[in-house]
Amino acid sequence: MSRYVLRRLLMALPVVVGILLVTFMIQAVIPTDAVSAMYEGQTTEEEAAEAIAAMRQRYGLDQPWYVQFTRYAGNVLHGDFGESIRLRRPVSEEIGYRFVNTLQLTGAALLIGILIGVPMGILSAAKKDTWLDVGAMTVGLLGISMPAFFFGLLLILIFAVWLQWIPVVPRGGAALLLPALTLGLIEAAPLSRIARSAMIEILRRDHIRAARSRGMGEMSVILRHALPGTLLAVMTVIGLQFGNLLGGAFIIEVIFGWRGIGELGVKAIQWRDFALTQAIILISAGAHISANLLVDVLYAWIDPRVDYNA
Predict the structure, then answer these.
(1) Which of 136, 212, 288, 289 could form a cystine bridge with 243, CB 3.0-4.6 A?
(2) What CA–CA distances, in Å, run from 160 to 143, 155, 182, 259?
(3) What is the pTM of this model?
């Protein structure tokens, strides 16, 4: 198992290095930066030029790109993402609690998606070609097709404006409810379709027909023989879906004012704060890779047929 995990980590290393290089090169080719944006229209041209030159020298932006990249990559290896030019504080301090907030949001959304999507898919497969199956899959198709920002605004309109069950600007734990519900319901749509397809395929297998021929009830067949295989099929895509949730969280956090890395990432782009933007991209990519690795390890641990040396 340890060799399997080590091999997966080594495979992920070139991806992280590639992301680091690409994000840095995007910064290098953009003709402006956060320093220039800070002084736009605030001072005279001479004063702005002196201040910009001093700031660029302070942050090393006046050096060649390869010097900047070497220094930046070395700092990242030591956990130092630099200092935010706009916020005037270390990037790691600003991102720390926001990343925890984003994990809370995506974790709650994933839990909602699993609790709703998997049972809906299993029920749909058990009642294949009935009105229940058609209705569930229609709802799932709408969930896949609907943009996250539109669905979020729709939930605000229903629960905060029309029904007035939740304040428009909720506080405390209630602030997590609507954004998590928005992402969770959208996540339930693909999970339900995956669970349905896996369950239908398993119900056609010989051991299922053998269990039925022994007089076992349909519910027992589903719970004892078909459900474990269905959950394994769902588990294989959860890592990919976690990446989709992170992408959706960027939009949802802005709509609901949730103070996560998504909301901060949008602000960092507007500020042209490249140190902050690069750190958010790297951490998001690292979280995506870690989620996929965790799912692969759990799958290999649960399913004894998986070959660690493959």
Answers:
(1) 288
(2) 21, 8, 14, 20
(3) 0.83
- Closest by CA position to 245, among listed 148, 118, 178, 154: 148
How far is 217 from 38, CA to CA, in rounded Å? 70
User: Is 15 inside a domain boundary?
Assistant: yes
Identify the burial level of 68 via C-beta atoms within 10 angstroms of its C-beta, where 0-12 means exposed, 13-18 middle and 19 or more buried.
middle
Q: Which residues of the chain have pLDDT under 50?
A: none
Q: Looking at residue 194, what is its pLDDT? A: 92
Indicate the residue among 61, 76, 92 that finishes a domain: 92
In a shared domain, residues 24 and 160: no
Partnered with residue 84 across adjacent β-strands are 89
Which domain does 6 fall in, by range? Answer: 2-92
Number of domains in the chain: 2
pLDDT at 215: 83
pLDDT tens for each residue of 209-266: 888 888 888 888 888 888 888 888 888 788 778 877 888 888 899 888 888 998 899 8
- How many degrees, rounded to 5, is the angle at CA 113 between CA 111 and CA 115? 65
List of residues 6+ apart from 134 with CB closer than 8 A: none
The verdict on 118 and 37 lying in the same domain is no
Residues 18, 20, 21, 27: what is their CA dihedral angle, to the nearest 10 degrees? 140
C-alpha triplet 252, 97, 152: angle, nearest 5° = 10
